[in-house]
Every structure is written in C-alpha cells, then in structure tokens.
C-alpha cells in the first residue's frame, strides 16, 4: 500500500471513528427526541377520523386500497405491531392513543439518558412502526426522524441534564480542564453518520428545488405557502404578494441551504453555516407551516462538526520523518 493511500485511509478512519466529546450527539439526540414527542402528540389529533373501524385508514380499508393499487409487494415489509393488534381486536382508538403516549414517554426517557441503548432502539422501533402503519399518510417528517433516531441510537445513552451541568461548571470556572474524550468509538460514528445523513438530505433537497421551474422563475416561495387555514403569515393581499418580496425569498431559499451546509463543514465559518441553516428552516416553517419538518432538519444539522485534518503533504512529511 502506497504512503498516500495509507494517509487517505487514516483520514477516512479518523473522520468516522475518531473519539469525540458526546456533547454534540447529546444535543442532536435531545432535539430529535423533542421533535419526536411533538410528532407523536400531533398525531393524536385526528386518530378517530383515520384509524377507527370503518374509517379511511382502518386496517380493512387500507388492505383493500393496497390490493386495488397493486402495491402488495411494496408494502409487504412495512411491519408494525399495530397491524397485529388490529387483526386481534380490531382498530380501537385507545390502542393508538396508548401507542403514541408510549412514544412520548420513551422520548423523555431517552432525553434523560435512562433505559440504556435498549430504550433508544425501542423509540426508533416505535417511530418506524407508526410510520409503517399510517403508510399513505406519512411524509418527510417520518423519514427524517427515522434516520435521525437510528443514527443517534448507535451511540451510548447520554443525558441533557449532564451536558447542561458540565456547561454550567465550565462557565463558572473558565480555567477548569475540559471533560475527557470518551473511549467509545460509537460516539464519533453516530455523530458523523447523523451529520452525513443531513448533508445528503440537504443536497437532495437543493437538487429537487433546482429541478423545478418554480424555483428558477421566482415563485417557489409563493408555491411553498401553506393552505389558507394553516398559514402563519398573511400572504394574499399582503406585503408578501409583492413581486420583489416573494422572488427574493425564493432565491434566498434556493441558496441558503447549500451555502449553510458548506459553511457548517468549514471550521472557520462553522457558526455562520449553522445560522444559515437555521434561517432556512425558519423560512420553510413559517411559509409552509412545516414546523416538524424544519425542526427535524435543524436537529440533524446540530451534529455537523468539521474535523481538523492537516494537509496530506504535511502528514506525509511527518510519516517519512518517523520512518
């Protein structure tokens, strides 16, 4: 193996498995759990309309829809304990409420670092089980939470209380030594995986936007606006209908996300990149009322932390000197 190949291999291993402080993983996991809890609570609002026997998404009606659409092969592996319960006792509202409340409780358990890795994986399983049950009602939020909770479950359990107490002690004694780096390689791997997941999602989101004409002709922000009953901003007849305003918002939305991601991976502009990503998420939340989606995106972005790597030529010189 050549010297350059060895150095590149070392850089790859360091990127994925270098020991890191668990503070970033704790912050991202806590944020994702808060979003997951809010998602479970929001799912309770229309349970009786969708999932009770005889309603549109009841097990019987859903099975007929799948067969009529020829989607048997695609849905065969969408597993959920709720399907089994529906088959045994029928679609009961109290079962679904209990399931979602269990998801909320598990989110709190994981936030405070209780239950070990078992609780983390059960929470991920509950989320995936719910997403598989609602099938045609699921969207991007379920995908983001599933990916995010899977990545964070790889790392060891941590508590947000412990993170805050460490931060408070260090602020009270600036001269104190920083906490020791954990030996568990899963901390670094879980953090990197979450950051890479977000980066790929951001790239795909940007590519999807650029593939649509509405983001080129300036009306993308206008098209993103939520239905009238769900809007937080008055659009029709208001200041947003001015051509300059919605065209400017469109171009900002197109540019801000990829620029923010690029800067977030650049150590010297790390905080500026996070600010750009946060602004993009806020714009999407306000314009489209996609609050859970925006919160999940920003929660995943919290895991980004650039790795300080020396230039390859410099590290090659060091290796040759050691040899």
From TrEMBL:
Transmembrane found in the keyword field: yes
Keyword tags: Membrane, Transmembrane, Transmembrane helix
Top-level taxon in the UniProt lineage: Bacteria
Keyword Transmembrane carried by entry: yes
Transmembrane segments: 31-52, 94-112, 189-216, 244-265, 277-304
Protein's name according to its UniProt entry: HTTM domain-containing protein
Taxonomic source organism: Stieleria varia
Source species taxonomy: Bacteria, Pseudomonadati, Planctomycetota, Planctomycetia, Pirellulales
């Amino acid at each position: 193996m050549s010297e350059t190949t060895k150095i590149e291999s070392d850089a790859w291993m360091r990127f994925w498995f270098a020991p890191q402080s668990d503070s970033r993983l704790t912050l991202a996991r806590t944020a994702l759990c808060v979003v997951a809890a809010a998602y479970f609570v929001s799912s309770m609002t229309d349970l009786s309309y969708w999932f009770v026997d005889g309603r549109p998404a009841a097990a019987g009606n859903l099975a007929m829809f799948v067969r009529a659409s020829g989607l048997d092969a695609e849905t065969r592996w969408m597993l959920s304990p709720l399907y089994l319960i529906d088959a045994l006792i029928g679609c009961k509202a109290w079962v679904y409420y209990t399931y979602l409340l269990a998801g909320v409780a598990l989110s709190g358990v994981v936030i405070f670092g209780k239950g070990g890795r078992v609780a983390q994986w059960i929470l991920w399983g509950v989320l995936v089980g719910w997403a598989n049950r609602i099938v045609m009602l699921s969207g991007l939020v379920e995908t983001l939470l599933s990916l995010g909770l899977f990545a964070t479950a790889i790392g060891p359990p941590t508590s947000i209380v412990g993170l805050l107490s460490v931060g408070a002690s260090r602020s009270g004694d600036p001269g104190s030594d920083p906490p020791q780096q954990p030996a568990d390689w899963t901390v670094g791997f879980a953090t990197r995986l979450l950051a890479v997941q977000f980066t790929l999602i951001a790239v795909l989101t940007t590519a999807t936007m650029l593939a649509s004409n509405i983001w080129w002709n300036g009306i993308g922000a206008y098209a993103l606006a939520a239905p009238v009953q769900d809007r937080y901003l008055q659009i029709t007849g208001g200041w947003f209908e001015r051509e300059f305003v919605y065209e400017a918002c469109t171009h900002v939305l197109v540019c801000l996300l990829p620029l923010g991601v690029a800067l977030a991976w650049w150590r010297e502009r790390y905080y500026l990149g996070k600010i750009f990503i946060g602004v993009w998420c806020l714009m999407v939340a306000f314009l489209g009322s996609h609050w859970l989606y925006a919160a999940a995106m920003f929660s995943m972005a919290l895991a980004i932390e650039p790795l300080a790597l020396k230039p390859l030529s410099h590290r090659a010189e060091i290796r040759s000197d050691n040899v």
